[in-house]
C-alpha cells in the first residue's frame, strides 16, 4: 500500500470521525440555543440522541417557547415526544392561547394532543367561532302540518371539555331534538312561521352544549318550509282502514245470510221430502183400512167428494191446488 493511499484513508477516516462527532455532539444546536437564551447543556443534547429523541425538534421548540415568553422545560417536551405527541402543535397552541388570553396550560394542551384532537385547531376554533349547518329537520305541529327547518349553529371550542367531551354530531342531534320538540308543542304551524326566533330561544334555553367539547353561541333558523298535511293524511289512511274493516264485516254478514238461506232451503227440502214420504203412505193406510173394515166404500166416496170440492174452490180462488194443476 503506497503513501498516497494511506493519506486518502486517513482523510476519509477523519471526515467520518468528525461527522460522527458532530452528529453525537450537536454543537450547532447548542450554539443556536445559547444565542437564543435557551439553557440546554451539550450533554443533555447527547443524551437526547441516546434516548432516541430529536435534539433539533426539542431545541427549536424550546427556542420558540422562550421567545414567546412561555415557561416549559426540555424534560416535559421530551416526555410528550416519547409519548407520541406533536410537540410543535402543542407549542403553537400554547402561544396562540396566550396571545388570545385563553387559559391553557401545558398539561391540558398535551392531554388534548394525546387524545387525538388537533390542539392548535381547537385554540383557533375557540378564537374564531365556527358555523355548523344542521340537516333539514322535519316535525309536525299539533294542527297536523309538517314543517321542515334548517338551522345554523355558531359554536366555539370549549378547551376544558375537549378531552372526553362530545363532538359536533351530538350538538347537531340535540339541536334537531330541540327543533322537533318546539314545533311539536305549537298548537298551529303558523305560530312557528310568524315567530321563528321563539324556536331558537327555546332550543338555546335547554343548555344543549352541556358535556360537549363546544359552547353554543347562537342558533339561527336559516329556513322553514311547509311540508305535507300529515294530519289529513293520517285521517285519510284511518278512513280507508275503517272502510276496509266495514267492508270485511259486511262481507261477513252477507256470507252468514247466504249460509242461513241455504240452511233454510235445506230444511225446506227435507220437510218436503218428509211430506212426500208421508203422502206415499196414504194409499197403503187406506188399503189397510179397507182390509180391516175401518173404512167403507161410502166413506171413501165421501172423502173423494170433499177433496174434489176443495180442489174446485182452490181453482176458483187461485189457491195452491190450481197452481199445482
Automatic annotation (TrEMBL):
**Superkingdom in the source lineage:** Bacteria
Q: Write out the GO cellular component annotations.
A: membrane raft; plasma membrane
Q: Which UniProt keywords apply?
A: Cell membrane, Membrane, Transmembrane, Transmembrane helix
- Which InterPro entries does the record associate with it? FloA
Where does it primarily localize?
A: membrane
**Which sequence ranges are marked TM in the entry?**
7-25
How is this protein situated with respect to the membrane?
Single-pass membrane protein
User: Would I find Transmembrane helix among this entry's keywords?
Assistant: yes
Q: Quick check: keyword Membrane in the entry?
A: yes
One matching Pfam family? FloA
Q: What is its subcellular localisation?
A: Cell membrane; Membrane raft
Family indicated by similarity: Belongs to the flotillin-like FloA family.
Q: What does this protein do?
A: Found in functional membrane microdomains (FMM) that may be equivalent to eukaryotic membrane rafts FMMs are highly dynamic and increase in number as cells age. Flotillins are thought to be important factors in membrane fluidity.
Partners and quaternary state?
A: Homooligomerizes.
Name the UniProt record assigns to this protein? Flotillin-like protein FloA
Give the species. Answer: Candidatus Sphingobacterium stercoripullorum
Amino acid at each position: 500500500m503506497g503513501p498516497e493511499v494511506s493519506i486518502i484513508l486517513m482523510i476519509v477516516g477523519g471526515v467520518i470521525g468528525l461527522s460522527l462527532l458532530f452528529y453525537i455532539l450537536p454543537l450547532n444546536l447548542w450554539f443556536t440555543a445559547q444565542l437564543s437564551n435557551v439553557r440546554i447543556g451539550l450533554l443533555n443534547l447527547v443524551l437526547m440522541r441516546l434516548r432516541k429523541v430529536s435534539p433539533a425538534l426539542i431545541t427549536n421548540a424550546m427556542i420558540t417557547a422562550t421567545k414567546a415568553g412561555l415557561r416549559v422545560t426540555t424534560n416535559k417536551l421530551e416526555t410528550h415526544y416519547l409519548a407520541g405527541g406533536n410537540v410543535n402543535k402543542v407549542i403553537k397552541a400554547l402561544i396562540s392561547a396566550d396571545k388570545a388570553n385563553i387559559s391553557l396550560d401545558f398539561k391540558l394542551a398535551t392531554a388534548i394532543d394525546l387524545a387525538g384532537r388537533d390542539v392548535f385547531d381547537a385554540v383557533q376554533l375557540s378564537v374564531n367561532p365556527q358555523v355548523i349547518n344542521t340537516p333539514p329537520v322535519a316535525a309536525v305541529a299539533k294542527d297536523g302540518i309538517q314543517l321542515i327547518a334548517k338551522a345554523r349553529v355558531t359554536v366555539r371550542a370549549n378547551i376544558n371539555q375537549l378531552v372526553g367531551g362530545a363532538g359536533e354530531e351530538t350538538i347537531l342531534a340535540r339541536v334537531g331534538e330541540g327543533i322537533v320538540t318546539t314545533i311539536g308543542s305549537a298548537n298551529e304551524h303558523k305560530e312557528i312561521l310568524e315567530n321563528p326566533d321563539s324556536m331558537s330561544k327555546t332550543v338555546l334555553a335547554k343548555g344543549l352544549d352541556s358535556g360537549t367539547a363546544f359552547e353554543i353561541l347562537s342558533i339561527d333558523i336559516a329556513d322553514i318550509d311547509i311540508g305535507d298535511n300529515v294530519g289529513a293524511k293520517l285521517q285519510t289512511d284511518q278512513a280507508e282502514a275503517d272502510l276496509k274493516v266495514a267492508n270485511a264485516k259486511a262481507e261477513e254478514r252477507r256470507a252468514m245470510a247466504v249460509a242461513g238461506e241455504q240452511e233454510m232451503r235445506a230444511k225446506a227440502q227435507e220437510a218436503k221430502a218428509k211430506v212426500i214420504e208421508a203422502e206415499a203412505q196414504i194409499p197403503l193406510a187406506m188399503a189397510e183400512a179397507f182390509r180391516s173394515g175401518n173404512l167403507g166404500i161410502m166413506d171413501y166416496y165421501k172423502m173423494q167428494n170433499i177433496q174434489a170440492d176443495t180442489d174446485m174452490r182452490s181453482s176458483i180462488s187461485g189457491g195452491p191446488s190450481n197452481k199445482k194443476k
